[in-house]
Amino acid sequence: MLSERRLEVLRAIVQDYVGTEEPVGSKALTERHNLGVSPATVRNDMAVLEEEGFIAQPHTSAGRIPTDKGYRLFVDKLAGVKPLSTPERRAIQNFLDGAVDLDDVVGRTVRLLAQLTRQVAVVQYPSLTRSTVRHVELLSLAPARLMLVLITDTGRVEQRMVDCPAPFGEQSVADLRARLNSRVVGRRFTDVPQLVQDLPESFEAEDRGTVSTVLATLLETLVEETEERLMIGGTANLTRFGHDFPLTIRPVLEALEEQVVLLKLLGEAKDSAMTVRIGHENAHEGLNSTSVVAVGYGSGDEAVAKLGVVGPTRMDYPGTMGAVRAVARYVGQILAES
Fold first, then answer.
1. Which residue of 22, 51, 288, 329 is most buried, as measured by CB atoms within 10 A?
2. Phi and psi at residue 186, to the nearest 5°
């Protein structure tokens, strides 16, 4: 266990290194921070921190920098989440309030997060499996061709074409639409198959084939992996941190292009708690020099998806965590009101 004073020294090293990009020496620490001890004592504390793997000496200069282990302790024990200022909160609200649909909400969220944190922003679309049905629309395009439109409580819209085995009249379309909505509106997607399984039997024999075809299309839409969609923005921000990536930035950029990697980085959507993964805690080798701050968002108590940022380990963790949490809260409110 580190003493309180050594924890304070570590906190000061992290703050100074993040702020200045320069390795931190004991003289600078005692000048900038009210540690209440002599430079010699600080040097001794730094030697202990280095021995235990919390800080390291990048080259032969007198300065030290935090390691992944040091950042981890900083995030777990020493960093509070920095609240956003009133103007920042107002700016978030004004920017997101103008969104017209779900794609616009996600697009604006990505741009906003990238601007606020000056990192790479990643936003996952709301998961279908955790959504409820708001409305099912059926439109007749031709005597034997329909369009099925599924609208979720998170504002997501899925469209599918349905080729019917026989002509299906306008009255039958209206009838099916009404009966379908009476069973599924407000219900979880996972419950829908059971709710509609006996629906074809309530129609005339000549219409049952078409009703079954429409239901099959609806159920396919529900189980498709469409929740594996996400949007990324602010990749250019990484170029500002060239010296934070020891060899080259290429592995980071290549990893960010892989959707599967990004989804694993964000973690399980149902977990709404904030997660911070630092350096080598990221399983993907290309991201060993980065940190990920992610949190769930949703229209109620349960998260329907994740959003977060990816940046170098030399990150303003309190500010980034505050921004990510605030944006997630506003997006949740927009989904709840939409």
1. 288
2. 80, 0
